Amino acid sequence: MTREAMTGGAAPEALPLCAAVLCAGAAAWLISGRNRDLRRAGLLFAAGGSAGPAGADPRRRLTETVAWLRERWRTAYGGRMGWELLCLPAGGVLALVGVSVLPLLAGAAAVPVVGRWRRGREHDRERERRAAAVIELCGAVAGELRAGRQPVEALLATPPGHIGERWGLVSAAARFGGDVPEALRRAARSPGAEGLIGVAACWQVAVDEGAGLAAGLDRVAGALRAERDQRQKLRSQLAGPRATAVVLALLPAIGLLMGTALGADPLRVLLHTPAGLGCLLAGCLLEWAGYAWTARVIRAAAGREGHRAHGA
């Protein structure tokens, strides 16, 4: 009895139940999305006397619960879902092939992990776009200044690009006579827009001492461009170790495919025997340890190269 509970012997009965739960959750999600406006109207006019007591209708209670979960999801993850949801059907296929509920649970557990990794990649790309926008801004403002415009006019005439929402503070300060350097420093708090601190310093020096703002912006743009080139060079140097880590992470899956092709049925051994479950647990732990160790080595190498670049 214990062996069946451990190895997923009740998987044929558990799989239809899991599928039913997933279908019910998806249906409730769609119903709550379709009736969202009606639900808001009902909540607004519930005090009119036509609505029944709160919580009396199970369907209404379920709809409000699903709406609350969606709001929590939107607050935590921005309401964005991507291809990390493919972990669910992949886990379902493996669960059907291996006749075990463990792959389905693993696929559900992998959704937030993959989503966090995907959002991290999106933040990195947004940071790179914002840094490139700061470099373009410096060059454009310097060009406008050399064309004869005043600093405020040159700043307002330059499109901000992908700098971010905080650029509105800079535009408002320049348009209404506010503190432009302070607004630039506040806009520099966005990830990737740190170069605006140099722009603020050049603006402050130009206002206080009458120095050439265009020349200072050119120097800031050159420094930011050199720093970007250094990051790209470092990224190309670390591409080899990252590719090696990905290949090593995929080796267990390749081994399972080869075992299946040879007729060894590795999924049955891993999911339905105590020795297989032990090997599966040990393999997952070693996989995680290897990935963490490789990531630490890459971060250490990136840190050394970054300190070397700043020291140079």
Automatic annotation (TrEMBL):
Organism of derivation: Streptomyces cuspidosporus
Transmembrane segments: 14-31, 93-115, 243-263, 275-294
InterPro entries documented for this protein: T2SS_GspF_dom
Recorded topology in the membrane: Multi-pass membrane protein
Keyword annotations: Cell membrane, Membrane, Transmembrane, Transmembrane helix
Protein name: Type II secretion system F family protein
Keyword set includes Zinc-finger: no
Source lineage: Bacteria, Bacillati, Actinomycetota, Actinomycetes, Kitasatosporales
Coiled-coil boundaries: none
